[in-house]
Amino acid sequence: MYLRNALRAATAMTLVATAAAHADTLTIATVNNGDMIRMQGYTDKFTEATGIDVEWVTLEENVLRQRVTTDITTKGGTFDIMTIGMYETPIWGANGWLVPLDGLSEEYDVGDILPAMAGGLSHDGTLFAAPFYGESSMIMYRADLMEKAGMEMPEAPSWQFIKEAAAAMTDRDAEINGICLRGKAGWGEGGAFITAMSNSFGARWFDEEWKPQFDQPEWADTLNFYVEMMNESGPAGYATNGFNENLSLFQQGKCGMWIDATVAASFVTNPDDSTVADHVGFALAPDTGLGKRSNWLWAWALAIPAGTQQEDAAKQFIEWATSKDYIELVAESEGWANVPPGARTSLYENPEYQKVPFAKMTLDSILSADPNSPTVKPVPYVGIQFAAIPEFAGIATQVSQEFSAVYAGQQTVEEALAKAQAFTAEEMEAAGY
Fold this sequence. Notes:
- The protein is α/β, with parallel strands linked by helices.
- The protein has two domains: about 1-135 and about 295-355, 3-Layer(aba) Sandwich (D-Maltodextrin-Binding Protein, domain 2), CATH 3.40.190.10; about 135-295 and about 380-430, 3-Layer(aba) Sandwich (D-Maltodextrin-Binding Protein, domain 2).
- The chain contains 20 helices and eleven strands.
- The strands form three sheets. A five-stranded mixed β-sheet has the order 2-1-3-11-6. Strands 8-9-7-10 form a four-stranded mixed β-sheet, with helices on both faces. Strands 4-5 form a two-stranded antiparallel ribbon.
- Residues about 1-20 have low confidence and may be disordered.
């Protein structure tokens, strides 16, 4: 059934059939997240339908960002398709570094992409990357441990509740940590988490005059709360834990709560991989009562670097990998809970997908995230866990390293914030802000 659909989709594309006849080979850079690994397992379906071969370069998140950024800024030409996100896409599109994704087939149905995802992957109304999956962040928790602790998770909890619940669920003798959170350096790893968390504490990266705000009490409140909670209830070595490390801990039954990407829900509830699959509950990311929750907005998306010699074949692959047909393929093979989430409106209108226990919470989290108004106080930038300016990646990588040094016990919160303030101010001044 799927092969027939894939063939029909291929013929409906506006791309010429001669691309397949020449047995093109696409080189694709991607992140080592579960949904991307799963996609690689289905690539033979695409090759069977089109004759186009695919070579994968699969990298850890921080390494991927570095490799693709270097390649596109130096016009290295290593990749025909890059996996990038909402931070890079508008900036790179504005610079002319990406191929516009116009002319996609009618069957592909660009209008079905969730507006939050399409908007974050566009520049001046032009789509420059297609979302493979979209995400916000939410709480995943062990309902059995919460019950054992005599507590009940609210649908929209506060950070104070989370801290108290984490302490109550921690059992060092049983190797159960009350909470697992990212501490790994990297602007898109621990940096993304602590920035989203800081929004709910009233912090911001810059004021309206682009002056860094790490010398303000809201950032100190955020970091002190995080460090105290993690030292009390988190795993040893949390300073080096990112998405994949915490996923592994949770699946092994070693975390009472995990606040991270909504896309993780399918992995923690999959009984083939998770020892706690039958005990997982979900809730909105926490707040402090100031009107902003600590959830982010992101999409891992596929984009074509300008100058590739495989533009037609690359568009053909992107149509296949981000299509409704691909979602149906995964659903047929592995169940609706395992399809790539957060990208298409039609998925959340599908009665079968509506039965998935985390579907509604994922959509609610995505829809509640507002990159145009991410903080309690006004800011001059767009973005929730990042500021959408070219300088941010370099600055935030350094700042995240200072924060991770705090988590590792190598310096104090005060020392890290002073360094972050000085470094960010210097870099922003040099950039002309």
